[in-house]
Amino acid sequence: MSKKRVVVSLGHDALGYTTTEQWDAVKVTAKALADLVEADYQLTITHSNGPQVSMIHKAMTELRRVYIDYTPAPMCVCSAMSQGYVGYDIQNSLRAELLDRGISKPVSTILTQVTVDPYDEAFYEPTKVIGRYMSKEDAEIEVKKGNYVKEDPGKGFRRVVAAPKPIDIVEIEAIRALAAADQVVIACGGGGIPVIEQKHALKGASAVIEKDAIAGKLASDLSCDELIILTTVPYVYKNFGKEDQAALETLTVAEAKDLIAAGQFEEGTMLPKIEAAISYLEKVPAGKVLITSMDHVKDAIKGKAGTVITA
């Protein structure tokens, strides 16, 4: 029996929000991922990096405040740093967990770039909030630099960047080769490093890519059998948070589109996950999407939990 090829997308809760939280969180995450390996899944893993890239960006900004001549790292470099930092913890924790179970399997992190369109509408209306809270004075300095800021009433100002749609995964052939060799691959962390093609060069963009969007693209580019999106809830819900909240065990693409049109999924939480599922299934109609929480994934792959979306 051939192994099921799957992309697993990890959310914030799988990684924690601080360095120490991440150390603890990835050990739990590694157990869930190892369960999938034991169940004969061939894994390609992608992950969130929101808290991590914000922490790195804040550190770079604070360094600039202390050392006036220091040139702060651009957003694309912060994204690259976060891929290495998060990937390092995931691959080492997963490697150790697999060895504890008697499984010897290479686990590798690939620094991954993703091309974006410089004319994407997202660059004209940045919406992705990053970094620390700033005073009005600091916010004005950011605006003078050409950056966008957004006020959070009562808390201060924060920088906002564009979240363009992914076009191509630059390192896709490297990812495909390692996956074909039955290695565990960690790629496209934080949505990938957004870059713009300039002839033969790739120029980093001041942007971030939605990690769910890249998970769907990665799964379709690899022609995976499944896309597993791990989040904070065990199911996708209709009327989430209301008295008549109902867990959805199965969905079709058509049903998911109807629920989107009805405003059932919140922007920034479940909506991008459903959109990623639709994008993947429209390219790989024989595929399957499973949305569930980390602590339910072992039951979910047996059909005992989670929401399954099909074409």
TrEMBL record:
Question: Is Zinc tagged as a keyword?
Answer: no
Which InterPro entries does the entry link to? AceGlu_kinase-like_sf, Asp/Glu/Uridylate_kinase, Carb_kinase
Name-wise, this protein is Carbamate kinase
Report the source organism: Simiaoa sunii
PANTHER family the UniProt entry points to: CARBAMATE KINASE, CARBAMATE KINASE-RELATED
A GO cellular component entry from the record: cytosol
Q: Which UniProt keywords apply?
A: Kinase, Transferase
Keyword check for Endoplasmic reticulum = no
Q: Which pathway does this polypeptide act in?
A: Metabolic intermediate metabolism; carbamoyl phosphate degradation; CO(2) and NH(3) from carbamoyl phosphate: step 1/1
- Which family is this protein grouped under? Belongs to the carbamate kinase family.
- Which SUPFAM superfamilies does this chain map to? Carbamate kinase-like
Q: What's the catalysed reaction? A: hydrogencarbonate + NH4(+) + ATP = carbamoyl phosphate + ADP + H2O + H(+)
Domain called Aspartate/glutamate/uridylate kinase: residue spans: 4-283
Query: CDD domains annotated for this entry?
Result: AAK_CK
Q: Name one GO molecular function term.
A: carbamate kinase activity
**Which biological process annotations from GO are given for this protein?**
L-arginine deiminase pathway
